[in-house]
Amino acid sequence: MPTRSVQGRVELLQGTLDLLVLRTLRWGPAHGHAIAKAIEQGSADVLLVEQGSLYPALHRLIERGWIAFEEGTSENNRRAKFYRLTAKGRKQLEIETSKWDTLAAAVGRILRPSAQEK
């Protein structure tokens, strides 16, 4: 999934989206639209989550056992799947967050080298 700008917004890369979905579900169960909106609002509307990316990510996370779902009714009185983080997903969230921190620090060192590294 490419990263692209859409009116100042950014589409997420696959691995990043998985991490943000796990993080969002840490607050409690949510349906797909609510997950996308939480990520978008949490990023001050910079990150764009499209359905074509979100639902494959949700299916991947279910297959890995990191999230589960239950059928329910949304606030618009429509049938919806409500996704929740599993115990395995909570552990994976910690692992993925650590990986992200390591990656972000490494990229930061390349983008903004210290005086000694210049």
Task: Describe what you observe in this structure.
This protein has 118 residues and is an alpha+beta fold. It has one domain (5-110): Arc Repressor Mutant, subunit A. The chain is built from 4 helices and 6 strands. The strands form 2 sheets. It has a 3-stranded mixed sheet with strand order 1-2-4. Helix 1 packs across helix 3 (51-63). The longest helix has 25 residues, at 87-111. The radius of gyration is 16 Å and the shape is globular.
Brief write-up:
By secondary structure, the protein is of the alpha+beta class.
Keywords for this structure?
alpha+beta, Arc Repressor Mutant, subunit A, three-stranded mixed beta sheet, disordered N terminus, three-stranded antiparallel beta sheet, 6 strands, single chain, 118 residues
Q: Major β-sheet, in short?
A: 3 strands, mixed
CATH architecture: Orthogonal Bundle
Structural class: alpha+beta
Structure annotation, total helices = 4
Annotate the secondary structure layout.
Layout: E1 5-6, E2 9-11, H1 14-25, E3 30-31, H2 32-42, E4 47-48, H3 51-63, E5 67-73, E6 79-85, H4 87-111
Parallel strand pairs: 2-4
Antiparallel strand pairs: 1-2, 3-6, 5-6
